[in-house]
Design goal:
Rossmann fold, about 325 residues, 7 strands, 7-stranded mixed beta sheet, 13 helices, alpha/beta
Length: about 325
């Protein structure tokens, strides 16, 4: 079974640690899309609340529900679940995120989902992976043909964690996909600045050397069988575009007014220069993150976001 290299685990953790202060200083608590229901005038905070409640509804979260949040970020979903009377555990690779969550009284562990112990088997009614699954595979795994095996393992782990006697037994994923055919991973392990500026390969290399490798449409459905069947699939690409544009606006505004932001970047650079530089460039200079969800010259966005709900069999 291919393994996520320790260097990539560190890169993901460092990347989110680096984002923690800029997002906090910008008044941002979530690292994934909101739900606008086709109305771009909906305030950002309402859209984020819509998304959290949608995900919790999909796993039938209510009083006494036991949920697992894989890639819990700042813990906003766990907080919403707590309001419903549910018991939640969150996992993150980022110590900074874990500390923020624990300060809120949330049960959050610094743990790779692949290290979840066997004594957690059958302990949950529902599982949510909101924006985390794209980090589970990298370009090197894809080159080795291991992408499908890692997704299969994800569904196997999730299946064993769900209580076979629960009436819910649902798993939701929110994940970016390549639109159509994926880019050859050979291009994505090259220095992005040696690739044609502004090309798809250039943007994807900048993004995916920090944020790992995306699946193609239908790939998760193929690898979920026979343990899970999809009960719902929603295209949230436009939602993520609206969310990302608001992130960019708030982050830029905060950079102009918050010295703490620059200190945070300087600290991140000393800790992980490559991740920090590529992340800064991809967000603020090339806008590669937003590029994923923007239409250009009448063409659809290069990437799609799908919200999947899976029913355990």
């Amino acid at each position: 079974m291919p393994t996520l290299p320790q260097t990539n685990i560190i890169a993901v953790a460092n990347g989110y640690d680096a984002l923690d202060t800029p997002f906090t200083e910008s008044g941002l608590e979530d690292y994934t899309d909101g739900m606008y229901f086709g109305d771009p005038t909906i305030p950002y905070e309402i859209a984020q609340s819509n998304q959290l409640n949608y995900l919790l509804d999909e796993i039938k979260c209510g009083p006494g529900s036991r949920i697992l949040d894989i890639g819990c970020g700042a813990g906003t979903l766990l907080e919403e679940a707590r309001k419903r009377g549910a018991q939640g555990i969150g996992l993150t690779l980022s110590p900074a995120q874990a500390q923020r969550c624990q300060a809120k009284g949330l049960d959050v562990r610094v743990m790779n989902y692949r290290d979840i112990p066997q004594n957690w088997n059958g302990k949950f009614d529902g599982i949510i992976a909101n924006g985390s699954v794209e980090h589970f595979v990298n370009a090197q795994d894809a080159l080795k043909g291991g992408q499908d095996l890692i997704y299969q393992e994800l569904f196997e782990i999730s299946h064993r964690l769900l209580d076979p006697h629960s009436s819910a037994r649902r798993f939701t994923t929110t994940i970016i996909h390549f639109r159509g055919t994926s880019i050859n991973p050979k291009a994505l392990i090259r220095n992005p600045f040696l690739l044609p500026w502004g090309s798809s390969e250039f943007h994807c290399a900048l993004l995916m050397q920090n944020f790992a490798f995306y699946p193609s449409r239908g790939q998760l459905e193929k690898n979920a069988k026979p343990l899970f069947v999809p009960t719902s699939t929603i295209d949230g690409t436009e939602d993520y575009r609206l969310t990302s544009e608001e992130w960019l606006r708030r982050l830029r505004k905060a950079f102009l007014s918050s010295p703490k932001m620059w200190k945070s970047i300087a600290h991140s650079f000393t800790k992980s220069p490559s991740v920090t530089v590529k992340g800064f460039i991809s967000i603020f200079i090339t806008e590669s993150w937003n590029w994923q969800f923007r239409s250009k010259n009448g063409n659809p966005p290069p990437m799609q976001l799908f919200r999947h709900t899976w029913q355990a069999q």
